[in-house]
Amino acid sequence: MINEIRWCNVGNKVFKATVRSVLIGYLLVLLVIPIGSIYLKGFSLGWDPFWKEVTGPLAWKSILLTIKLSVVSTIIQAIVGTIISYVLVRYTFRGKSILNSMVDLPFSLPTSVAGLMFLTLLGPSSPLGVWLDHLGIKLLYNQTAIVIGLVFVTFPFVIRTVQPLLEQIDPAEEQASFTLGAGRFYTFCRIVFPAIFPGIIAGSMLAFSRSLAEFGAISLISGNLPGKTMVASVYIYGETQNFNPEGAAAISLVLLTLSVLILWIINVLTRGKGRLA
């Protein structure tokens, strides 16, 4: 009996060591080594060339444009995503299940296909595009097009992070607030919003991080005008085509550092959601 227990303990230790080794190897191959290679390539020529690449007129403008439009699309997602998630959780209506399943479409749809979809829908040869052109509204090959593309590809993040938190709220709390004479807006602000605030922040930061890296849809609908509509991901692609891997790595390093910082903040906020709520 004692021997069997010893063998079980040995087997458990071997199993744990194997799982740990596989996990560490997986993280090394798919995360640590690729990320480390970007940092090594970005600083391969030293600090001065790196700083020169990052602060170059076109590179710096592409970074600022990416951050600015990512912030705009994230604000839109925070507001619209919260409203949609509230409707999906609190209301029952015909077609709700279809709408709920459609939320995840941007996850499964290649972003280049999304860009082609917007070109087909809003292009100058489409009926909607012709009508908008007559009204003097241009939704392609400008910054508005970039925001539209970013909103589409990041659409599910806020919704899917807020929905579980809404489902945990007892509807009886809202009903009690209504019974005491509070309106819907006041009830939402005092009861619902504090509970879902961590989800809104986490989903918004995920959307922002995803916006920083978007390439497929944006490259088709932005026009890619240097200094005007060229985002950082398109600039990086251009640098690789111009045989400047160090310059591409330098800009990639900036975006990568921002993304890692955002994920770290999300982790901190998730652990402290009780304090936020």
Overview of the structural elements:
With 277 residues, the protein is mainly alpha-helical. It has 15 helices and no strands. The longest helix is centred in the first third of the chain and has 41 residues, at 2-42. The mean pLDDT is 83.
Outline the secondary-structure elements.
Elements: H1 2-42, H2 47-54, H3 57-90, H4 96-102, H5 105-108, H6 111-122, H7 127-134, H8 143-153, H9 155-168, H10 171-179, H11 184-213, H12 216-221, H13 232-241, H14 245-271, H15 273-276
Helix pairs in contact: 1-14, 2-14, 3-8, 3-9, 3-11, 9-11, 10-11, 11-14, 13-14
| Count of alpha and pi helical runs | 15
Strand content: under 5%
The protein's oligomeric status is single chain
Shape: globular
What is the alpha-carbon Rg in Å?
Answer: 24 Å
Q: What share of the residues lie within helices?
A: over 70%
Main beta sheet strand tally, sense and closure: none
Mean of residue pLDDT?
83
What structural category arises from helix and sheet content?
A: mainly alpha
First-last Cα distance: 52 Å
Sequence of secondary-structure elements: HHHHHHHHHHHHHHH
**Spans of at least 5 consecutive residues with low confidence:** none
Strand segment tally? 0
Comma- or semicolon-separated keywords:
single chain, 277 residues, mainly alpha, globular
Q: What is this structure, in a nutshell?
A:
With 277 residues, this protein is mostly helical.
